Amino acid sequence: MRTLGVDLAAATKKTAVAVIEWSDHRARLAHLSLDVDDQEIVDLFGSCDMSGVDCPVGWPDALVPFLTGHLNFDAGPVLAHDGIAGRRLLAYRDTDRFCTAQTGLIPLSVSADRLAHPAMRCAVIQAKIAAVHGPQLRDGSGRLAEVYPAASLKIWGLNGRGYKGRGVPEAERLGILLAALEEQAPWLDLGGHRDRITASDDLFDAVIASLTARAAARRRTLLPDDAHAAAARSEGWIHLPSCGLDVLPG
User: The whole model's pTM is what?
Assistant: First the structure.
């Protein structure tokens, strides 16, 4: 099995990918790249069995009628979201609320925060993948799953605080975090890329996304139940690991 992890930014710069090859209870980081364009992502998707993208793959269901109502001067759908509670339904998806309930983490809003630009690019990439490899269901039941590295790290007992950034403290924390990952996952061969990963939180997140894609491929993530299934199909679903790191290579 080959899994692809994508840490998606709004533009090519700072977009990172990691491909892990799995065999014989071991895994090897076979490809690692930074400043990746859409075509490389589409090509790598085609060569992998499962892909995990660190970016929302959809928007809240409530957002479309709200915007349509505003465009058409139809007050009903707009006034339905009057007040902070109504606006939360426009800002956060069902899966975001589920993720918060499970992990205590609050994902950034795809419609009201800085994730909006990456999500627009992600929608374009999904369309490009669909043109070549067929549409991928947003709930992750196909070959593309939405992932959230911060949540994966927390579930796996790794301290994911304070490692993002270009400063010396952040670099030190990233080095410590990677060492902790290596200790918990001795079966993972970084393929000589350790120094590159310790120098880039984007590359590190791509590796975590690829590991989470393995969990999704093996159905070792929290899947939407009947109460969440419909929203997951339209809005997307964050795949939270339901297993420890030690289970992934088995």
Answer: 0.96
pLDDT digits (tens, 9 = 90+) for 234-250: 999 999 999 999 999 98
List Cβ neighbours of 1 (8 Å cut-off, separation of 6 or more): 21, 22, 23, 49, 50, 214, 217
Would you say 155 and 69 are in contact if contact means Cβ atoms under 8 Å apart?
A: no
Q: What angle do CA 184, 185, 189 make, to 5 degrees?
A: 145
Neighbours of 228 (CB within 10 A): 18
Quick one: tokens of 94? 């069902």
CB-based burial label for 114 (10 Å; 0-12, 13-18, 19+): exposed
CB 216 within 8 A of CB 52: yes
Residues in a beta bridge with 22: 27
What are 66-109's pLDDT values in tens digits?
A: 999 999 999 999 999 999 999 999 999 999 999 999 999 999 99
- Two tokens, residue 203: 């590359």
Tokens of 182: 């290596």
Instruction: Decide: residue 52, CB within 10 A, 0-12 exposed, 13-18 middle, 19+ buried.
Output: buried
pLDDT tens, 12-64? 999 999 999 999 899 999 999 999 999 999 999 999 999 999 999 999 999 99
* CA distances, 159 to each of 6, 94, 150, 152, 201 (Å): 21, 26, 9, 11, 14
Alpha helices in the chain (DSSP H): 38-47, 63-71, 75-79, 83-91, 94-103, 116-133, 149-155, 168-184, 194-198, 201-217, 229-235
Confidence of residue 161 (pLDDT cuts 50, 70, 90): confident
